[in-house]
Amino acid sequence: MQNKNENAVNVLQELNQFVNDRIEGYKHAADLTKNPAHRSFYNKLIQESNDFSNEINRTIGSFGGERQDGTTAKGKIFRGWMDVKSTVTGSDEESIIESNIYGEEWAQKAYNDALDHKAELPQSVISMVEKQKHASEATCEQLKQMKESVD
């Protein structure tokens, strides 16, 4: 049977793959957008995501685990699909924002999956995951507002 530290490491390593997908997704969006305000927003989200990843990796290390710097296979496939889509249809702002909304909804699912293990996690980990999840929810709402403004 695993102890709380091992459970925390496993949950956080998996979660950090999704956070790293978030970083790559916003880098991709910043490269594609032609709107300077959107690019600035995406760059802010890249920094926020880097901060989240660093926080997760510090916590993993404090429990004796190895850093998680990789991304998910699904994220890689999605970014590849976005490249194909932008080549065929162009990189319009609405489709970039829609992709980011999808990515944030996916990130929230990853946070929820991590929180499904609350009984196995230290309170400090639960608090960190909840804080990051709330930030993701706020970002998703901002993206939805951005989408409405470009319609």
CATH level-3 fold name: Ferritin
Please state the CA-atom Rg, rounded to the nearest Å.
16 Å
Taking the sheet with the most strands, its summary is: none
As for the number of domains, it is 1
Unreliable spans are none
CATH classification class: Mainly Alpha
Overall pLDDT confidence: 87
- Secondary structure category: mainly alpha
Please specify the SSE layout and strand pairing.
Blueprint: H1 4-32, H2 36-62, H3 73-89, H4 93-115, H5 123-150
Helix pairs in contact: 1-2, 1-3, 1-4, 2-5, 4-5
Pfam families: DUF2383 (PF09537)
Protein name: DUF2383 domain-containing protein
Domain DUF2383: 8-116
Describe the fold and architecture:
This protein is mostly helical and 151 residues long. It has a single domain, classed as Ferritin. Helices cover 82% and strands 0% of the residues. It has 5 helices and no strands. Helix 1 packs antiparallel against helix 4 (93-115) and helix 4 (93-115) runs antiparallel to helix 5. The termini are far apart. The mean pLDDT is 87.
